[in-house]
Design a protein that fits this description.
The structure is a single chain. The chain has 185 residues and is mainly β. It has one domain (15-184): Electron Transport, Fmn-binding Protein, Chain A (Pnp Oxidase, Chain A), CATH 2.30.110. The protein is 12% helix and 41% strand. The protein starts with 14 loop residues before the first strand and ends in a 16-residue tail after the last strand.
Length: 185
């Protein structure tokens, strides 16, 4: 099969669209991030790449804490809005019902079915972005997204972003059970 060489590109699929929350100058602020992922199981950590100079990063640096809020696919317009406009110019907290978790300095979005409270562990300068590593200190999950004690990603209905096409998507069908389907070989 022939393949086209496209040079260095950020081509990982899928990427979650999340709303990062931080308190900036005493007000909750939220920004959209697609470059986010789990970094470690123990301690539970998340990595978030944030373009330098972002208003939300100012709050993370100052207070050393932040939230990762996982929106549903139905929140696509609000999520896109939070990625287009800076909190320097617009009060995006008025778009949501803002709750507080165990750490009162971490703003959480009530409309998001999953919220992760994080404490900043590390920041790494990567050029255009700062890689923020946060330890997940508490997870909040809406009860209707649980099957027993497990989070059901189809019930969460997370918004997914595709970098190459600059489009939003939702999760599809289950194609196999991890740590099981490979045993069929």
């Amino acid at each position: 099969m022939n393949k086209e060489r496209l040079g260095p590109r950020t081509l990982l699929f899928p990427m979650p669209s999340v709303l990062i929350g931080s308190e900036v100058d005493g007000k909750p602020n939220f920004m959209t991030v697609a470059w986010c992922g789990i970094a470690s199981h123990q301690p539970p950590t998340v990595s978030v790449a944030i373009r330098k100079g972002r208003h939300t990063l100012k709050g993370i640096d100052a207070l050393r804490c932040f939230s990762v809020n996982i929106p549903t696919s139905k929140m696509v317009k609000t999520v896109d809005f939070c990625g287009i406009y800076s909190g320097k110019d617009r009060d995006k907290s008025s778009l949501f019902h803002v709750d507080k978790g165990e750490n009162p300095r971490i703003p959480l979005i009530r409309e998001c079915p999953v919220n992760l409270e994080c404490t900043l562990l590390h920041s790494l300068d990567l050029g255009s972005h700062t890689l923020v590593i946060g330890e997940i200190t508490q997870s909040h999950v809406r009860q209707d997204c649980l099957t027993g004690k497990k989070v059901d990603p189809l019930l969460v209905d997370p918004l997914i972003y595709a970098t190459s096409s600059e489009t939003y998507h939702k999760l599809g069908q289950v194609v196999g059970t991890a740590f099981q389907v490979g045993k069929e070989l």
